[in-house]
Design a protein that fits this description.
Blueprint: E1 2-8, H1 12-23, E2 27-34, H2 41-54, E3 62-64, H3 78-81, H4 106-116, E4 120-124, H5 129-137, E5 145-151, H6 166-170, H7 172-184, E6 189-192, H8 194-197, E7 201-202, H9 204-211, H10 216-232, E8 237-238, H11 242-249, E9 254-263, E10 274-276, H12 282-286, E11 296-303, H13 305-318
Parallel strand pairs: 1-2, 1-4, 2-3, 4-5, 5-6, 6-11
Antiparallel strand pairs: 7-8, 9-10, 9-11
Helix pairs in contact: 1-2, 1-10, 1-11, 2-10, 4-5, 5-7, 9-10, 11-13
C-alpha cells in the first residue's frame, strides 16, 4: 500500500485523478489539498469535495490552500475546464457535496500529515504554490516525502504558451522553489509533463461504458470524458493528470530519464518553461557558464497510453475498496 497525498486544482482531469486515487487498491489516499489554478480556490474545494463524495471517499480530509500564485494574479483555465472548473457538471444537476473543508490551511494539513509518518508519495497536479509555501515555512516536512510526483512542465512543448505548461506557468516562482528545496533535501522527483500527458486517451466508447454504470463515481467520470470529447472535438480526450497517479501505481508504464531541470523565470517568451537539460556531452556541461541545474528529475519521456487508460478505467469502474 502506497500512502498518497494529492495537491489539486480540480479541474476535469484532476477529478479523473481523484477518482482513480480513491479507488486503486494499492493506493491509500491520506489527504487532498487545494490551490488556485484551473478555477479559483473556493471552487476547487467545492469540486474536490463533490468528486470525493462520488468516489465514496467522503472520509478523506480536504483543505483549502493558496488563493493566488506567489507573485502574479491567478489566471484560471475556464476555457479548458468549464465555468465551474468541473466540466460544468453543476449545470447538469450533479449534486454538490454537503461536506466542508478541514479547518486547517492546506499547508498545515500537509505539514501535519508529512510529519506524522509514514513517508508518503506527494503528487501535485496543480500549480506548486501550496508546496512552495510548505517547504519554505516548514522545511522539515520534506523528510516525510518518500517521492514527489508533479504533473507539470515539458521537455519539448508548452500549452499555456508555446514554451510553458499551465501548472508551471501559473506560478513559476513556486515551481522553482519546490525543485530547489527538494533537491536540497534529496527527495526523488518525477515530472509527468506534456511529453506524456496526452498519451492515455479515452474515446466515446469509454465515456459510454462509464456513463452507463450504476456507480456515481464512474458516471461522473463518464460525464467528464464527454465534456472533454465535446470541447476538443477530436474523437479522443486525455485523462491528463490521472496519468501521473497511474505512474505511481504502475511505474513500469512510464519511461523516464533522470535529467537536470530548471524553471525559466525571466524570459519574455519563455517564462514558466521547464528547461530540461538533455545534452549528451559532458564537455558541453563543463563549459556551461550557468553550471548544471541542481535538481535532477526523473522526466517522463514516453508513456504506454493504452496501458494507463485500461488501468484507470478498470479502477474507476471497480468502485472503492471496502465500499
Amino acid at each position: 500500500m502506497i500512502p498518497l497525498i494529492l495537491d489539486v486544482d480540480t479541474g476535469v482531469d484532476d477529478a479523473l485523478a481523484l477518482l482513480f486515487a480513491a479507488r486503486h487498491p494499492e493506493l491509500q489516499l491520506r489527504a487532498v489539498t487545494c490551490v488556485a489554478g484551473n478555477a479559483d480556490v473556493d471552487q476547487v474545494v467545492r469540486n474536490t469535495l463533490t468528486v470525493l463524495d462520488a468516489a465514496g471517499a467522503g472520509d478523506v480530509p480536504v483543505a483549502r490552500g493558496a488563493a493566488r500564485p506567489l507573485v502574479e494574479a491567478p489566471q484560471p483555465a475556464r476555457h479548458v475546464h468549464g465555468v465551474d472548473g468541473l466540466g460544468d457538471v453543476s449545470h447538469q444537476g450533479w449534486p454538490p457535496s454537503a461536506r466542508v473543508a478541514d479547518p486547517r490551511h492546506a499547508v498545515e494539513l500537509l505539514r501535519d500529515s508529512l510529519l506524522a509518518g509514514p513517508p508518503v508519495t506527494l503528487v501535485a497536479l496543480a500549480p506548486l504554490t501550496n508546496i512552495a509555501l510548505l517547504l519554505r515555512t516548514y522545511p522539515e516536512a520534506a523528510g516525510g516525502i518518500a517521492r514527489f510526483v508533479f504533473m507539470g512542465g515539458g521537455a519539448l512543448r508548452g500549452n499555456a504558451t508555446a514554451a510553458a505548461e499551465f501548472n508551471v506557468w501559473h506560478d513559476p516562482e513556486a515551481a522553482a522553489v519546490v525543485l530547489d528545496a527538494l533537491a536540497t533535501a534529496s527527495v526523488p522527483i518525477t515530472m509527468y509533463g506534456l511529453d506524456v500527458f496526452y498519451g492515455p486517451a479515452a474515446t466515446e466508447t469509454d465515456a459510454e461504458v462509464l456513463s452507463s454504470a450504476a456507480d456515481p463515481g464512474a458516471r461522473l467520470a463518464g460525464a467528464l470524458l464527454r465534456f472533454g470529447l465535446t470541447r476538443y472535438g477530436t474523437g479522443a480526450t486525455t485523462i491528463g493528470d490521472a496519468g501521473a497517479v497511474c505512474a505511481v501505481a504502475d511505474p513500469a508504464g512510464l519511461r523516464a530519464q533522470r535529467l537536470p531541470v530548471r524553471v525559466e523565470l525571466a524570459g519574455t517568451w519563455t517564462r514558466g518553461q521547464t528547461v530540461v537539460d538533455q545534452r549528451p556531452s559532458a564537455l558541453d556541461d563543463d563549459h556551461d557558464p550557468h553550471g548544471l541545474a541542481p535538481a535532477l528529475v526523473d522526466v517522463g519521456l514516453e508513456v504506454d497510453g493504452p496501458r494507463y487508460l485500461h488501468l484507470w478505467r478498470s479502477t474507476v469502474l471497480a468502485g472503492r475498496v471496502g465500499a
